[in-house]
Design goal:
single chain, 470 residues, mainly alpha, disordered N terminus, disordered C terminus
């Protein structure tokens, strides 16, 4: 496949827009929300409404009554097991990592080890009656979905375009990652939006970026690779402040729980909570969909290798593998940054960073939503204006065939419904075909990361991209 770079200013101008008043909105100020195409806006609104209605209907029909887990009734199960009841326990000073919590609350099991920060952020929902908390959380999820879509549109060169924002939101709802997040009520939307904003604000608003990193720190599999990638980008101030916020919040949160578990003896309580965290991680690793050998939802390359070898080497090799995967992308991001060719989360740098996060460390299928921004930039490369100060021009410098291959590879986890419990139980494939279907997502992302790293290192790529900033 030939890799070619060219100056987007040499491309032919796009066709003149349709001036039919029925299909166009009045000219609006660039900084105000406006509709570029009424037809697109109407179609996107209808699709978004249908997608939300179908997802919420499924959540109601397959609603999980809080308690033991059953595969055929997962509606809002992650809100119950991962947010609402753990937050209620934390408020009461009980440890959501303990076996006693799992026995005394209507949950499937104790939560895995993620920072209690996310529980405190959702504490207002836990103070409400269950169904009221569910309703408010659904509204919150929809609001964050629209915010993610707006950030993606802006990063791709369509600032304040309502029609484009609604189109992206509609597309996300119909993907596997968007649908399952809304269906189960997990907090993936919060993590993705915070990741995007942490990267976007890192240089201009380091304190605001640090607050976003505090949210991201709720999940170690997000904050670890993101922290190293931002380090490579030179975001030292944002990382330092973010680390301070995150460590302080985690210490305060765990200290609150430890104080109550130790009946006022903080030292004893810390020891108890440490033991509980070790135990809950063992329980977590024992779940079939979490095991790298048996999982059909894992995206990281380590899980794919473990699946095909039939062995799980454990946590330390997993972390070592992460550092190996991070090495070349970190150097490539540093090279892009030094060459002043970093065109944001919707460009090559964003695609490289988000794909590296997914490939390098434990991630589930819903985390593929991290790729929404770079996919938006790649797909929109032929439509955004060449003179837009916000458009990610890197994609326009890549051969169209190679760009299409990258779009297909990056989009695979979002649309591969073969690697789901629903299809695997109904198709009943042989072990070899099941391994192939459940490895497809991870393999596609690993290939995409290889290509993206190669492009970042391609001779002349940084020099060519510098031309766009002249």
């Amino acid at each position: 496949m030939k890799l070619s770079f060219h100056d987007s200013r040499d491309t032919k101008p796009l066709a003149a827009p349709n001036n039919n008043s029925a299909n166009r909105s009045p000219i609006a100020k660039p900084d105000s929300w406006h509709i570029g195409s009424r037809t697109l806006a109407v179609a996107a609104t209808i699709l978004l409404g249908l997608g939300l209605a179908a997802t919420l209907t499924r959540a109601i029909v397959q609603y999980q009554t809080p308690g033991p887990f059953t595969p055929d009734r997962q509606g809002l199960c992650d809100f119950h097991n991962g947010i609402y009841f753990p937050a209620r326990a934390a408020i009461a000073g009980e440890s959501p990592y303990s076996e006693s919590y799992a026995a005394n609350y209507p949950v499937a099991r104790q939560i895995p080890f993620f920072s209690p920060v996310i529980l405190w952020l959702h504490a207002p929902l836990a103070l409400l009656p269950l169904h009221a908390g569910e309703a408010v959380n659904i509204l919150l999820q929809i609001a964050i979905l629209l915010a993610i879509a707006a950030v993606c549109a802006d990063a791709a060169g369509f600032r304040n375009r309502l029609d484009v924002t609604l189109s992206i939101a509609a597309a996300i709802v119909f993907t596997r990652c968007g649908h399952i997040t809304l269906f189960t009520g997990y907090f993936t939307f919060q993590l993705v939006l915070a990741t995007y904003l942490a990267v976007i604000w890192a240089d201009r608003k380091p304190v605001a970026s640090a607050w976003m990193l505090l949210i991201v720190s709720a999940k170690p599999t997000y904050i670890l690779p993101l922290g190293f990638l931002m380090l490579a980008r030179g975001n030292y101030r944002a990382l330092t402040i973010g680390a301070t916020f995150s460590i302080a919040a985690a210490i305060a949160s765990l200290g609150w729980i430890a104080y109550h578990k130790g009946n006022g003896d903080l030292t004893s309580g810390i020891r108890i909570v440490q033991e509980q965290i070790v135990q809950t991680q063992e329980v977590h690793r024992g779940m079939e969909d979490e095991s790298p050998v048996h999982s059909w939802t894992r995206l990281d390359l380590f899980a794919i290798l473990a699946k095909w070898s039939g062995k799980d080497p454990g946590d330390l090799p997993h972390l070592a593998f992460m550092f190996i995967i991070l090495t070349l992308p970190m150097v490539a991001l540093r090279r892009i940054k030094n060459g002043q060719s970093d065109d944001g989360i919707a460009g090559l740098a964003g695609a490289l960073a988000m794909t590296t996060m997914l490939v390098s460390l434990y991630h589930q299928s819903y985390d593929a939503l991290l790729l929404a921004a770079p996919l938006t930039g790649a797909i929109a490369a032929n439509w955004n204006r060449a003179n837009s100060s916000h458009a990610p021009l890197t994609w326009r410098c890549i051969d169209a065939r190679l760009r299409f291959i990258l779009i297909a590879l990056l989009a695979c986890p979002a649309v591969n419904y073969l690697s789901t419990r629903f299809f695997l139980t109904r198709l009943d494939p042989s072990p070899s075909w099941a391994s192939l279907a459940t490895s497809l997502n991870g393999v596609s992302l690993a290939l995409a990361l290889t290509i993206l790293t190669w492009i970042a290192w391609a001779p002349g790529s940084t020099a060519q991209n510098n031309a766009f900033n002249d």
